[in-house]
Design a protein that fits this description.
The chain is an all-alpha fold and 358 residues long. The chain has 16 helices and two strands. Helix content is 36%, strand content 1%. The protein has a two-stranded antiparallel ribbon with strand order 1-2.
């Protein structure tokens, strides 16, 4: 296994060099004269996600949402912004198992990275956002962090009042929504417009698929293990075209006494322990892993699925079908799977200045 990890580490250096060599295209450069924001993609395999009719993306809205995302004014004591727990350098996630909220309070779940979010809107389920599916849209998802006592700890009226008194925000809201009287709906609409621009599609693996660069055999083997029916058998939940998640909710066997998960929203016992399937893009930036941040490295995650999953009455069939022996991956297969996962690293996404603090 050690020799495989050495090879994968060498491959990692190549990944970072390649993915830094070409910036992502989503920079607003193709926007129309009417002020609308145009999303661009590298090829036709990337289908456009749905955009709500009542919240079309505009240059002014994205600019306003970006400013709000980085502004601690949304928190009760003006100390925390959305970006405090969703940091650009970690693919808009956090590098701690559980993030600190206002007054040092600790959150309950690992901060999910924010990229390629909006394709969840195309899923038929009403449970689209957050680890336990508690929000039906990006707009609705924004409300909970602002008000939860272990996150920003504020209340919506206070937030609106502070923004209304601000020397800049009323004019920005007028430019975006045609009204300088601020309401909480327009606050969430603006942040959602910015979050929809956080699109990652320029990893080395993407460029390999587009035939811009060759695919190393180690990555090809790892991809074969990854796909449904392969040795790793990851693709049932983590492959959906280019997204590497199907946005479903699964109990992955993390614990014999699982967290409530989706059941906290639905009240259904069969949803206990079911959490949103995250994308596997940019894993290099998003450690620690799992909804509780309990796994430190990608190799820990591979070994967990290989031999350490737990069985409960709600554990996914894609996990239970491999019991009692587990996946039984060889050291070579683990190294190849690791190399494939590293190839999903999009360094141009985290370095894109269009996403950084204005």
């Amino acid at each position: 296994m050690k020799s495989r990890i050495v090879l994968a580490s060498f491959f990692l250096a190549i990944v970072l060099a390649i993915s830094c060599s070409k910036d992502a295209k989503i920079d607003g450069s193709n926007n129309t004269n009417d002020g609308s924001y145009t999303f661009t993609f590298p090829d036709k395999t990337w289908e456009m996600f749905p955009v709500p009719a009542d919240n079309p993306s505009t240059l002014a809205g994205v600019e306003l949402g970006r400013k709000l995302f980085y502004d601690p004014i949304l928190s009760i004591d003006n100390t925390l912004a959305c970006a405090s727990c969703h940091k650009a350098q970690y693919s808009f996630g956090d590098n701690t198992p559980l993030s600190n909220g206002v007054s040092g309070l600790i959150g309950k779940r690992n901060a999910m990275p924010l990229f390629n979010l909006a394709w969840a809107d195309a899923t038929p389920s009403p449970h689209k956002y957050t680890w336990n599916g508690g929000a039906t849209s990006i707009e609705r998802q924004i409300l909970a962090p602002v008000t939860l006592p272990f996150e920003m700890g504020s209340n919506l009226d206070t937030v609106v009042a502070k923004l209304q008194r601000h020397p800049i925000y009323p004019a920005m809201f007028f430019k975006t929504f045609g009204n300088s009287v601020i309401d909480i709906n327009n606050v969430t609409y603006a942040i959602a417009q910015f979050e929809r621009t956080l699109i990652s599609y320029n990893s080395p693996f993407d460029r390999m698929i587009r035939k811009e660069i060759p695919m190393p055999q180690e990555v090809a083997n790892g991809y074969a293990h990854f796909q449904s029916g392969g040795a790793g058998d990851c693709g049932h939940c983590h492959i959906n075209g280019n997204l590497f998640t199907d946005y479903s909710f699964q109990n992955n066997g993390l614990s014999e006494l699982p967290d409530s998960g989706l059941a906290a929203i639905t009240g259904k016992s069969y949803d206990i322990g079911r959490f949103k399937v995250p994308s596997l893009r940019n894993l290099l930036f998003t450690a620690p892993y799992m909804h509780d941040g309990s796994m430190k490295t990608i190799l820990d995650v591979i070994e967990f699925y290989n031999a350490s999953t737990k069985i409960t009455v709600t554990t996914s069939e894609f996990i239970t079908k491999h019991k009692p022996l587990g996946l039984q991956l060889t050291a070579k297969q683990k190294g190849e799977l690791y190399a494939f996962l590293l190839s999903l690293t999009d360094s141009s996404f985290i370095s894109n200045t269009e996403f950084h603090k204005p």
